[in-house]
Amino acid sequence: MDRPARVVLAGAHGHGWWHLDNLRRLRAAGLAELVGVCDLRPVEPEKLRGLGEPPQSPDLTELIERTGAEITVLVTPIHTHAELAVRALAAGSHLLLEKPPASSAADFDRIAIAVARSGLACQVGFQSLGSAAVPAVRKLIADGAVGRVRGIGAAGAWPRPATYFTRSPWAGRRRIDGVETTDGALTNPFAHAVATALALADAPVEAYEIELYHANPIEADDTSSIRLRLSDGTVVTVAVSLCAPERHEPYVVVHGDAGRITLTYTMDEVRVGDGPPTRHPRVDLLENLIEHIRGGAELLVPLHRTAGFMGVLEEIRRAPDPLPIPDEFQELIREDGEVTRRVLPGIAELTARSAERLALFGELEDAPWSASGVALRAGGRTVARYVWRHPDVPVTVSPRPFLHPVRTLGGVEVSETRPADHVHHLGVCVAIADVGGRNFWGGRTWVPGEGPRWLDDHGVQRHVEFTRLAEDGLEELLSWTGPGGEEVLRERRAVRAVPLRDAWALDLRFTLANATGAPLEIRSSATKGRAGAAYGGFFWRAPGSATAREVFTAEAEGEEAVHGSATPWLALTGAAPDGREWTLVFVRPGPPERWFARVREYPGIGVALAWEHPLLLETELSRRVVTVVADGRLDRATAAAYAAEVTA
C-alpha cells in the first residue's frame, strides 16, 4: 500500500511532456514510479531525466505485462484511444485517459464495456473537473445564491499559430482514411469548456444547435458555437475560437434570475456577481486515481461522468463539415511571405457576447462571416440550406426563415430568393398575405377598392428555438410577430430531407396556433378582390432564369388548367441556363386544397390556405407538403409514381 504506483506512459511527445513533469513531481513525493514509456518514437534520455531509466516499447500490452504497471496514462492521438484503452485494461492496468476520451460514441461505448468487464478504474483527463471550484459553484446554485438558473454560457478565445494545425497528421482533422479523429476546437482544446459547463447542470441534453467554422485551411473547426437545451429547460452555450489576437482565459457563467456566477476554470476562480474572486484548490487526476486504487478514494472524473460531453462530441462528429471563413474577414499575420497565424478581429468580444446572451455566433451582430442557415443532406449530399436568421432582409419583405439554395442530387439549383421581379419571394417558405390585418407575405398589401398599397403592416417570423437538429432535417419553434411586436401566431415546423431512388424529397410540415386569444382571419389578396391572387401558405419560388418551364398534374397541363386545381400532386419542370433539366413534384397528403401556380410571369408553386373565402383560425391548423426534387424532365407516369411513393 505504501509503495509508489507503477505507471506506464503511452504517448510521450506533445502533451506527454506535461505528464512527464507531473510524474517527476509524484515520484519525488513517493507516490508514483514511471516504469515504462510506450511510443512509436523513442524518447531521448534527457527528456526522462529524474525519472530513472524506464524501458521503452511501441507495444503497449507487452510493456504493461513486462513491467507489471498498475496504471497506464494514455496520451496518444484521439482516434487511437479506444484500441489502446481496451488493450491496457485487458492487460490488467488501470487507466488515466486523456480528453477527449474517444473520437466517437461507438468508441466511447467500446471503452465503457471494457472498463465494466475488467473491474478496473478509468479516469478521464478533464483537469478542470478536479477543481474544488466546480462543487463550490454547484453548492452556490443549490443554495439559491443567484435564484433560478435560466442558462449557462461558456466562452474562450486563444491564439494558435498555423503550425498548431500541422503539428501531427491528425491535427485539425475530422477523419483520416475513413477513421474518425474529431479534432476540433470544441472537442479538444476547449473540451474543458464544454465538460465544465455540463458539470454545473443536472439534466440530460435534449436538443443540439451547432455552428462550426474554420479560418485556417483545415478540415475541422477552429471557431465554433453550440447551444444545448436540457430536459429541465436550461440552456447551455459554448462559443470558442483559436483565432484570437491574444489569450483570453476561458470561463463559464451561470445566469440566474437573481444574479450570476462566473467560473474561470483555468484559474479555479469563482466570482458571484461583481464580488471579489475566490480561489479553490485542484486535485491532480493521476494522484486521485492512485488514491482510488490504494485507499478507495472516489474517482473525480470516472468515464461515465463524461457521457454528456461525448454526446456533444458525437453531434459535432455527425454535423456537416465546418464552413470556411473568407480571408476578407481575417487579419493574416505573415512572416517571410507565409501566413503564420490567422486572427478574427473582435472574436473574444463575440465569444463573451455569446456567453452573455446564450446565443450562437449566427445570432450576434458584428459576425459577418457567421452562417445563419442549417445544411440539409440526403443521399450523402448537401441538398438544401435552411436560413433561419436574416439580418439583411428588410422589414418590407416580411422576414421569415426559408430554404435556399435547394438543389437536385446532380447539383442543379431549383430555388430562388429575392428575385428582381418579386424581391419578397424567399426561396421555399411559409408565407401568408394577411393574418388578422398583418402582412406576413412581404411587398405591398392589396386594399379592396384601391389595389396594392405600401402599408406599415409587415410582420416577422422569429426563430425561437430548434427542438431537433440533424443533418437530414430540423424541428423548429417560431413566433409570428406583428408590426407592433404583438405575437399573432405560434408555429411548430418540421423540415426533413428524405432520400429517394435517383431523387430526394423535401418534407415540410407546419402547425399554426392562434396566439391572440380571439378568432383570427387568414386572407389572401384574392379574398379581397384581386382575381387569381390566392397565394398564402406553403410557397416555392423556382429560378426565374429557368427556361422551357412547364406545369402539369395527373389530369391537366398548362398554367390555366392547373392554377386553382385541387389534385393530389402537381409537377413543375424547367431547365437551368446550362441546359440541365429538373422537375419538382409537389404532393399534398391529406384532404385536397387548391394549387396556386405561376409559370409564365415567374415560376412559383403554392398551396393556398384561403382561395375564395377567408379562413377563420380559432385554435390551430396543420399542413404538410412533400416535394420531390429530381434531375431531368419527368414524364407524367414517373411523376405520379414519385407522388405515390412519398404519399405512402
From TrEMBL:
The keyword Iron does not apply. InterPro entries: DUF6807, Gfo/Idh/MocA-like_OxRdtase_N, Gfo/Idh/MocA_oxidrdct_glycsds, GFO_IDH_MocA-like_dom, NAD(P)-bd_dom_sf. Residues 7-126 form the Gfo/Idh/MocA-like oxidoreductase N-terminal domain. The keyword Ribonucleoprotein does not apply. Transmembrane segments: none annotated. Residues 136-261 form the GFO/IDH/MocA-like oxidoreductase domain. Keywords: Oxidoreductase. Signal peptide: none annotated. One of its GO terms (molecular function) is nucleotide binding. This is Putative dehydrogenase. It comes from Thermocatellispora tengchongensis.
